[in-house]
Each structure stands twice: as structure tokens, then as C-alpha cells.
Amino acid sequence: MQILNQNYTSDKHTKQPQLKEKILSQISETALEFRGVSKSFGALDVLRNLNLTLPVGKVYSIIGESGCGKTTALRLMNGLERPTSGEVYLNGEGFDYSMAVSIRRSMGYCLQGYTLFPHMNIFENMSVIARKSGWDKVKIKKRALEVMELMGLSASEYLDKKPSQLSGGQQQRIGIARAIFMNPQILLMDEPFGALDPITRNEIQEAFIELQKKLSLTVVLVTHDLAEAFKMSHEILLLEKGHLAQRGRPNKLLMQPATSYVTHFLKTHSPGHLLEEIPMYTVMFSDVCTVRKEGGGFVIGNLDDEGVAKYLPSRRELLSYINKKSDLRFFIDNNRRLTEYVGPILKDTDSLLDGLKTLLSTKEEVLPVVNKEACLVGAFGKEALDALS
Description:
Layout: H1 17-25, E1 30-41, E2 44-55, E3 59-64, H2 70-77, E4 85-90, E5 93-94, H3 100-105, E6 107-110, H4 122-126, H5 128-132, H6 137-150, H7 155-158, H8 168-180, E7 186-190, H9 198-215, E8 218-222, H10 226-232, E9 235-240, E10 243-248, H11 250-255, H12 260-269, H13 271-276, E11 289-294, E12 297-302, E13 310-312, H14 315-324, E14 329-332, E15 346-347, H15 352-360, E16 366-370, E17 376-381, H16 383-388
Parallel strand pairs: 3-8, 3-9, 6-7, 7-8, 11-14, 15-16
Antiparallel strand pairs: 1-2, 1-4, 4-5, 9-10, 11-12, 12-13, 16-17
């Protein structure tokens, strides 16, 4: 996680601290606002007449396809970019670009990854902006202890260490600690958890959710991870080619998509889409007991090993055998087509999502899987749910 180098620029080209304190002390119901904001880079229109009002104290996730303007919107929020047209408002007042550095220092800004300065220890990394801003040593030390406690890290154990001595998850926490060190009202985050493994990412996300509640931060989070956006956000802002396609709570986007693009985006970026890409033949099992009529009796076989068979001369013996065995069994004919079965049937080309939906909609614990010739090739059961959990 990295904080932009612009945050470290000297105040000598900005207005003096009295005006900076005015920014920090302003009280407004609205943290950030875009009024007709457009942004172009040469002939490329990145944002188009974007209107946003973000009330204080909530987490907003900006999602959308690559190139839709997510990061550009974030950079406009703290003055790293200026709009081609329209206005950006911070705490109810128009953004004063002559004070851009001071404004950025009153906000937290986290980038993808957890990059810390390798030559500095953790205390120096966290307090770098405070030192540039002229905080005295006592105030810096006190704030460092407060922030470490907020992040659930031992100050005595970590403050003197170098980043290389920390795990990825610990570095991520320090990155967040650095971003909130200056007591920001607003925290901007660009793919902040993308560099972490899934287990650590979940732990940091949970910790950050509690931190946001405790500090009542206004957070704007850019992410490509739809599950992360749903988990972290009070509201989601979905951009389409530089304009706002829809905003609202996650359930509103799911249940009341405003356009066909919203429907398509949610479908193709949801965890369910991943399940749609997994074919049934890769997750079914073939250790299936089969029963085939032969003469006046029955042949007990197994799809996994057709060389192993047992002949039972009567249905009475078959029922006795079945009662003693717990094996899954399907009745088939000589062509391995199902007989004496009336429940749902899956195709080996169905998706895992199709299989799960069908399984959850029936009382059957196991479903047969057939190929395009309708021959039994395997089975799919509820143990698949256990494997996915």
C-alpha cells in the first residue's frame, strides 16, 4: 500500500496552516461531490458529465470495466487531476487547487499493494507526512501509539522494525495505519487489498470494516473484485464508459438493475460466473454403483471399474444387497442409459452452477450425470457443496 509522493511536498507553495485548519474543521453532510465533471486526456474522454454526491461516514465502492474512469475519478477527488469541465466539491465547498497539497494531507490515499519505504522503520514510515507537516515529536509518538492500537498491532514489537521484517498482511496494516495517521475525514483507496492472498485479504477486510465503523470514515474504494465491493460497501457506484450506470446498495443493483449493462456486468463479474465456467465433467464423481437387469436377475457393477460385477438372481436378493450397502446406485440398461429413475438429470457439459442450482432445488442427495448419448457417466452430490465451502 502506497501513499502518493505528492503528499510529501513542502507547504511553501501553499497557503498557510490557518487555512488548512479551516478545511479540516469544516462540517458538512456531504464529504465529496461531483457536479457535471468531465475529464479528457487529449482526444480521449475518460469521464463524461459525472454527477455524484457522497454523504459522510459511508463506504462507497467504484466498480466497472477497465478504462471506465474509476481511478481517474479517485484522482479528481484529491486534486491529483483537475476536471476538464465541471466542479469538484469537498465538504460542501469548491475544491481550492491552490491548496491541493494541504487538502491531500487532510485525506488518506492508499494505492494497490503495501509498498513502504524500505530504508525507514515502521514508525518513520507511518509518521512521514506528520513530520513533513511540522508535528512535534511528542504529538507524533502519541499518534503512532494510537494508530498501532487501532490496527491491532503491538507498538513495542513493530515500530522499530523495517518493512522487510513484516509479513504481507502486517505491511498492509501499516499501509492503512500510514493513511489514517493524519486523522483524515476521507480515505481514498485504489485496489488496496489486491496484492494479498485470499485468507489474509479476508482478515484485513474484516479488520478494516471494524476500523471504518470506529472512526466513521468516508471511504471511496476502487476495486475490480465484485465480492469485495459487496462486502465492504454501503453503496456501489458502477461506471460505464465514464458515466454513472447505476448507484445503490448491493441488493438494489442485484434485484433492480437499471440497464442491460448493469445486468451483464454483475453476471460476468460475480462469483457465480466463475462457477459457470467449470464444466460438470470436471467435478462429478464416477465411483457409482449401477444395477443392470440380465436374464431373470441383476448385475451389480461400478462405473469406475466395469470388470468388477456381482450377479444376483432375484429382486429379493437385490433388495437385501441394497439394504446392506450404502453405495449410490442407478438402474441402467445395456447401453448405460438410465431406467427406473424419474428425478432431475444433469449433463456432463452443464456448468457447476447449473449442478448446484439443480441440486438445491430437489430432495435428491445425488444426481446422475449423462453424456450427449444419454449414457450414465457419473454423479454429482451434496459433497460438492462441502468441497466448495
